[in-house]
Structure formats: C-alpha cells, structure tokens
Write a structure and sequence with these properties.
Rossmann fold; about 280 residues; alpha/beta; single chain; globular; two-stranded antiparallel ribbon; 8 helices; about 30% helix; eight-stranded mixed sheet
C-alpha cells in the first residue's frame, strides 16, 4: 500500500485527506470513498483498507473538521452543507473509475446517507458499499430528555462540544493504534468529543435513513459487518436495518465476541476473510 497525504480547503476549513493506493499504481481498477467514525482519523484504518488496495481499489479518507489533522474544534464537523462540499470535492478526484462508498460507525451512517442521495440522483451511483458497525441510532445511548435539551441549545451554541461517552474499551479487544506523531502530543488523533450542532445533524441523518432506506439503489452490492457484542452500535439494530435494505445483492456478517471495531483485535482475521470473500464476488467494471 502507498499512502499519501493531501491538504484541501473547503468553506474556510483546512482538511487533511489521505489516499491509499495499491503498490502498483497501474493496477487501480476502482476508488472507494471511506467515511471515518466520530473522533476517528484516517490512519486508524490502514490495516483493514489494505484488503481493498491489494485488489486495486484506491481508498480515499477525508478527515472531517475537528478530526485527525484537520482544522477545527474537536468533534465539530460543521453541518450537512459542509459535508456535501467534502463529498463533492472527493467525487471530483475519482475520475472515470467505478467507485464505492464505505464507512465505519458514524461513517457507516454517512455511507447510508450517501446511498440514499445517490438513489435520488444527488450523487453518482456507487458500484459497491461496505457498512462497518454502522451507527444507525446515534442517539440510542441518550435519554429523550437529553435529546430534547440538545435540540433546544443547538441553535444557540452549535459548536459547544460534549463527550460521546465512547471509550476504547468499547471498541476493540486489543489496541492497535499507531503511535502519535510528535507534533500532535497536545492534540490527540483520536478523541471522544461531539458538538451539539453535529449531534443534531446525525440525529437528522438517522431519521432520513429510518424513513427513506427504500431510496437506496437496489442494484448496489452491499456488505454489512458487525461485532456481536458491540455496545456502541448493537448487533440487533444492525440486523433490523439490514433486513430493510432493498439491495438485491447484500451480505451480513456478524462476528462472535467482537466489539465495535471487528477489524482491531485478535479475531480480526474473521473480518478480513469475510471482506475477501465478498470482494471475490464483486464485478467491478
């Protein structure tokens, strides 16, 4: 795998983008847009994305505002309009290649949004999709009164951040985080902050997915991978969503004893094997 960093400026935000390529650049057959999770950063997905680059699939991750090396207040991703600008800027670099959409946790929810928008002709039609532990119910761990307070204060102080309550112990059995770069000792790459404005945006996307999953193009092959013991995105929630997906080619893989990040941990080879099998069946042209 060849990894390259790029810097882009969108709506006044300086964002960090990583492009992961096959060792042989001439072997690229497709491009995948990968949406990272809340508090995550691009380098955390190097190991799992290697499964795709070895197949000739270039993977592109743009760290949203307040994430990784991108500028902005920790956890404040802006709004729907900024997200659309990031997506459209990423789509520009795909060129004539077929492309897929993928995402983990919050990124899985954003990937579902992308699929719905593609079904409405807002985005080009993807050729494949991977949903990794999708955060289908972002407000699931919060009470209704908490969400009511959130909606009240969001218009007043949208950039105010609160903790997500998610810890590394909820995500994986064994940590595989890369070492931090010296320049970021005071700005950790991984964090657990979320702004009120972005939390409200995620709740709106959740409602979109729940009400309009039928708009997802049925022709897009999709795989959903899920840890059986995931405390962040419960497996039952993923199963329920999977049954609603209209895709004619869809695969659901649940891994016994795994938490929120099945790609990290001693049993991660099960996830890699499932992705390899699924990729074997894809017809990317």
């Amino acid at each position: 795998m060849i990894a390259n960093s790029h810097w882009i400026r969108i709506k006044g935000q300086l964002l960090h983008r990583m492009v992961f390529d096959p060792e042989d650049l001439g072997s690229v057959i497709a491009v995948a847009i990968f949406y990272h999770g809340q508090g995550d950063y691009a380098e955390r997905y190097v190991n799992v994305l290697d499964v795709f680059t070895r197949r000739g699939i270039r993977c592109v991750i743009t760290e949203l505002p307040g994430h990784g090396y991108s500028s902005g207040r920790r956890g404040h991703c802006g709004d729907d309009e900024l997200l659309d600008c990031v997506v459209r800027d990423t789509l520009k670099i795909i060129g004539e290649y077929p492309y897929g959409v993928m995402g983990h946790s919050m990124g899985g929810l954003l990937a579902l949004r992308h699929l719905i928008f593609a079904g409405r002709d807002h985005y080009p039609m993807p050729d494949f999709a991977w949903l990794s532990s999708p955060l289908i119910h972002p407000g699931g761990r919060r009470s209704e009164w908490y969400k009511a307070i959130l909606r009240f204060f969001t218009p007043i102080i949208p950039s105010l951040t609160v903790t997500t309550g998610v810890t590394s112990q909820m995500c994986h059995v064994k940590s595989h985080y890369p070492k931090q770069r010296p320049a970021l000792k005071k700005r950790q790459l991984w964090h657990r902050r979320i702004s009120l404005g972005w939390a409200r945006a995620l709740l709106d996307i959740e409602q979109l997915v729940r009400q309009h999953a039928s708009d997802i193009p049925a022709s897009v092959p999709v795989i959903c991978t899920q840890g059986e013991d995931d405390p962040v995105c419960p497996a039952q929630t993923a199963r329920d969503l999977f049954r609603q997906l209209p895709n004619t080619e869809k695969v659901y893989c649940e891994f016994e004893g795994m938490l929120h990040d099945p790609f990290n941990g001693e049993a991660s080879d099960q996830l890699f094997a499932a992705l390899e099998t699924w990729l074997n069946g894809l017809d990317i042209k």
